[in-house]
Amino acid sequence: MDAHEWDRRYADSELVWSATPNQFVAEDLAGLKPGRALDVATGEGRNALWLAEQGWDVAAVDFSMAGLDKARTLQARHERGRDLHVDWVHADVLEYDPGERRFDLVVLAYLQLPAEQRRTAVRRAFSALDDDGTFFLVAHDSSNLTEGTGGPQDATVLFTAEEVLGDLDGERFEVERAERVTRSVVPAADPNHEHEGEPARTAYDCLVRLRKPPAL
């Protein structure tokens, strides 16, 4: 989907995604000391706003102006909205350049791109990290097509944690987590269950958390 298609999708409903942060973002990053964060493909800004609530100074990037407008509205409605430090940046993540600015945390949540574009986005995001920074990615795992449920049914935009590590071949990093995780179990009666006649199925995500060590 291009920016215009996402604009139309965001315009069709009040919120496409929940206003609360992704469960893995909240669980895994809650203990980090706040600093400068980059939220890549922020969408409607739910993860960026949560990070700002924790004290982070956030740059939140997306190519959908409609998504960013919703994010700004969520911030304006927030009881602490004026105190939350978020810079909403309208830019394509394949081209976004933060200049000399470096971040203590980079988050990519459910970025859906074909392999070559994903690799570009992942490497650009990683390059924006400062020394000792944390790279965090969560996405629909490709095993959902055969073993799980939910997420896009297009194999070209699904991937595994191992493939994300491959995207960063040649970079220096320490792996803190790189695995398939369970997002939820979808009951057979749930309208989101995509395999009619089969029992409950598990929705899987791939999760990658890396530390960028200081330069030698």
TrEMBL record:
Single biological process term from Gene Ontology: methylation
Any GO molecular function: methyltransferase activity
Keywords assigned by UniProt, alphabetized: Methyltransferase, Transferase
Domain of life of the source: Bacteria
Domain Methyltransferase stretches: 38-133
Annotated InterPro entries: Methyltransf_25, SAM-dependent_MTases_sf
PANTHER family reported for this sequence: PUTATIVE (AFU_ORTHOLOGUE AFUA_2G14390)-RELATED, TRANS-ACONITATE 2-METHYLTRANSFERASE-RELATED
Official protein name in the record: Class I SAM-dependent methyltransferase
Organism name: Nocardioides jiangsuensis
